[in-house]
Specification:
The chain has about 575 residues and is of the alpha/beta class. The protein has 18 helices and 20 strands. The N terminus is likely disordered. The structure holds flavin-adenine dinucleotide. Flavin-adenine dinucleotide binds next to helix 2 and strand 15.
Length: about 575
């Protein structure tokens, strides 16, 4: 294994310290003096991720006495900005917004509280030894795609328009409570509304909708495109939100995920956030505080307290007990039901189903501090271009990606991963000293569970070196520019950010884990089998991604219930 650069040692050591202290507290080594606070809250929110903060904002706005308890020193969960090297800041985990509901931006006055989005210049796909750079300018993009196919520019326009049209059906469900399987009148009305949305589609679009839900990404891509380059690019885009064989039925669902977003009226758009993703969660926290919400960081909840089948409060790891009329869990369903309470208090069938939720996305994050901009070998060297200000993906061809998936499912690492790369400092000078840069890399096909008992802690820096070496095939001077780095293995995503089994969405987006089944038919309407305990995180409908939708929907349900009693 190569030795780490000194700056990496500094940063990684401090992360290890955070992780170790979290592990000790997870094991209950924190002081355990029970002390009950006299104050009673209307709502106690466990976790200050962006969904917990969204729910808090709405509850505070409705006048309910609300407290957010976050175990980390900062709020935001997977939506945070961190300093990875002195003077170099970056979105550490999630890095782009698209799904964030416009209603949440408006209702929580996020722009007034400092939230600002930045548009990228284009997309650059690098596959094997070739590339495709798209800017959205028709003449330019036709020329670019024409290098590979005379048909695929039009096919891409038709495909994207089709996904947008049917994506509207999904988008319309985001801020609606999914109907109960034991359907009552209101559930039938919800189903009818969805049926009406589907009815508005043309018969061909209805056909495509059901194909997209039930067929495989591979078949879908073969059906639409002719050139290997475009097919590879779409396969890579689809795998971004997935951990499934591209030939598996249902593996095309992530196409929706990349299309249902809507930024300032532009459907399917993706944006960076000024100051990093923490700019969003700090704005959410600012709004919540302005409505009287208390936010306590370094406040890990050890237990959700249940009396006679009702959630009555929480016990913190330091022993403090807080009482509330209800508890909202921003934690994922496994953590909520299996760690934060004694699962024996639950119906055994329900607990068994929660244990069975499929998790894991094979993602890791590598963030780099750079002393300059890397050259990208397909473009003139030594100067900045629109390609630097773009969303860059680097991946092998579809067959190698498929082989990567099966290897990762067996616990092995890829030689040629799928990478999604941004250089946010090219659009945001608040992140680095002048002339310096930060680069964000999301790498896929890195399983949480490694084969042969190998530990992520033993190999993660070596893996980071190998990712940088792979990137150097397209960016030859990159290794010489790195002056600091933050490597977040799948294990780090779990131990530092609390993402159980490193699942980026709090449970995979598979057909049997979505909508009225997310995370379970008995907890899909934000209420749970434990009375007065609600789910408000990504493990609930409509799922993961930076949308604020689970927090919005949960708050609406809680507000209605609190007003009733
Ligand atoms: C590597 C990666 C990249 C991603 N990239 C993107 C992207 O670019 N765009 C996008 O839209 N989505 C992205 N996602 C997905 C998205 O970030 C998440 O789905 C979303 O942020 C989850 O938000 P949440 O509020 O539901 O949960 P979380 O962000 O997980 O928040 C839960 C909070 O609960 C806290 N917590 C846990 N246990 C306790 C406890 N016992 N007591 C108190 N607090 C506790 C945690 O510390 C955390 O703050 C990415 C995710 C990952 C992991």
């Amino acid at each position: 294994m190569k030795s780490k650069p000194p700056c990496a040692i500094r940063r990684d050591d401090s992360q290890t310290c955070i992780r170790e202290s979290l592990r000790l507290s997870d094991l209950g080594f924190a002081q355990n003096k029970a002390k009950t606070m006299n104050e009673k809250y209307d709502a106690i929110i466990v976790g200050g991720g962006h969904n917990g903060l969204t729910a808090a904002g709405y509850l505070g706005k409705a006048g309910f006495k609300t407290i957010v308890l976050e175990r980390l020193p900062v709020v935001g969960g997977a939506v945070v900005t961190e300093e990875i090297h002195p003077g170099y800041r970056i979105s550490a985990v999630s890095y782009v917004v698209s799904l964030l509901r416009p209603e949440v931006i408006k209702d929580l006055e996020l722009k007034k509280h400092g939230f600002e989005m930045l548009k990228m210049d284009g997309t650059l796909a690098i596959c094997d030894d070739d590339y495709l750079f798209l800017t959205g300018d028709e003449a330019h993009d036709r020329r670019e795609i024409g290098r590979f196919s005379s048909l695929d520019y039009d096919a891409m326009q038709q495909f994207d328009a089709m996904v947008q049209s049917i994506g509207t059906v999904i988008r319309n469900q985001m801020l609606r409570e999914p109907p109960k399987l034991a359907a009552g009148l209101s559930d039938l009305t919800a189903l009818a509304r969805m049926g009406w949305d589907i009815k508005k589609l043309t018969p061909d679009l209805r056909h495509r909708l059901f194909q997209m839900l039930f067929s495989s990404a591979h078949d879908f891509i073969q059906r639409w495109f002719e050139s290997p380059m475009i097919k590879n690019m779409y396969a890579a885009a689809c795998f971004s939100g997935n951990f499934a064989s591209l030939r598996q039925p249902g593996s095309a669902i992530p196409f929706f995920h990349s299309a249902i977003g809507e930024i300032e009226g532009e459907k399917g758009a993706w944006r960076l956030v000024k100051g990093g993703m923490g700019g969003l969660t700090q704005a959410m926290a600012g709004f919540a505080r302005s409505k009287g919400v208390q936010i306590r960081t370094n406040s890990a909840v050890a237990e959700i307290l249940i009396e006679s089948g009702r959630a009555v409060g929480v016990r913190l790891e330091n022993g403090v007990i807080l009482n509330g009329r209800c508890v909202l869990a921003n934690t994922d369903p496994k953590r909520t039901f299996l760690s934060l309470m004694d699962p024996d208090q639950l119906d055994p069938d329900f607990a068994r189903d929660i244990r069975q939720i499929r998790m894991g996305h094979s993602s890791l994050r590598l963030n780099l501090a750079l002393k300059g901009l890397p050259d990208i070998k397909f473009f003139p060297s030594g100067s900045e271009g629109a390609w630097h200000r773009s969303d860059i993906t680097m991946h092998p061809d579809i067959n190698a990606m498929e082989a990567n998936y099966f290897a990762a499912a067996a616990g092995h690492l890829p030689d040629e991963p799928r990478l999604e790369i941004t250089i946010p400092s090219t659009l945001d000078d608040s992140l680095t000293p002048p002339g310096r840069h930060v680069m964000s890399i999301l790498a896929k096909y890195y399983p949480y569970q490694l084969a042969d008992g190998v530990s992520w802690d033993d190999i993660k820096e070596d893996v980071a070196d190998r990712i940088i070496a792979y990137m150097a095939r397209a960016m030859p001077n990159l290794p010489d520019l790195v002056i600091g780095r933050q490597m977040l293995s799948p294990l780090d995503l779990e131990t530092i950010y609390g993402l159980t089994e490193s699942d980026i969405f709090h449970g995979r987006h598979d057909m049997d884990q979505l909508f009225s089944l997310r995370p379970h038919p008995k907890a899909a309407q934000y209420r749970t089998p434990v009375q007065d305990l609600y789910l408000c995180g990504s493990g609930a409908h409509p799922g993961g991604g930076v949308s604020g939708a689970p927090g919005y929907n949960a708050a609406r349900r809680v507000i209605a219930d609190l007003k009733r009693c």
